[in-house]
Amino acid sequence: MSTHAKRERLLLADLLETTGPQAPTLCEDWTTRDLAAHVVVRERRPDAAGGILVKQLAPRLERVMAEFTAKPYEELIQLIRTGPPRFSPFSLKQVDEMSNIVEFYVHTEDVRRAQPDWTPRELDPVFQDALWSRLERTARLVGRGVPTGLVLRRPNGQTVVAHRGTPVVTVTGEPSELVLFAYGRQSAAKVELDGEENAIAKLQETKQLGI
């Protein structure tokens, strides 16, 4: 596992343990138990995890999710901590770096920011750069369904076009906040939006942002 992905994995496991199985998350109606089951299924049941993106596989995913959600909460947390089994593609360092740095950061914030007493945490510049690198690669995918043009901008001026179109809305923030915004956590992300008022309203209301 990469350093950043491993850190976020362990932080997520600690948060899930601290908050307990019935705490809210930013993932709509998911509790922390549901989120924990999702993480485990994604890494350990590739035969079902495809249902996250492929509608035809969704019924199988629902069955497997129900199976894992029913497991003891402590077991789910331990499975997250220990990481994927050797046969999983996520056990490969390159795949882990590509797939899990954003996955675990976003889900960590899903737990943190759903709690009433959450406070922002400072992230080191290297981690911010790593998140930006991933966002550059996935921006077009996460922005494919938005109803406006969408540009994501770092405070240092670096930009990436998530969706071409007019009118354009420019979203400015640290990479960590832009990732949350781009992955459907618009209401929780600490960003600034610039553009026509109607375009901003449409962007904030869209349910298609994120994957």
Automatic annotation (TrEMBL):
Q: Which domain of life is it from?
A: Bacteria
Q: Which InterPro entries match?
A: CHP03085, DinB/YfiT-like, Maleyloyr_isom
Protein name as it appears in the record: Uncharacterized protein (TIGR03085 family)
* Species this protein is from: Streptomyces griseomycini
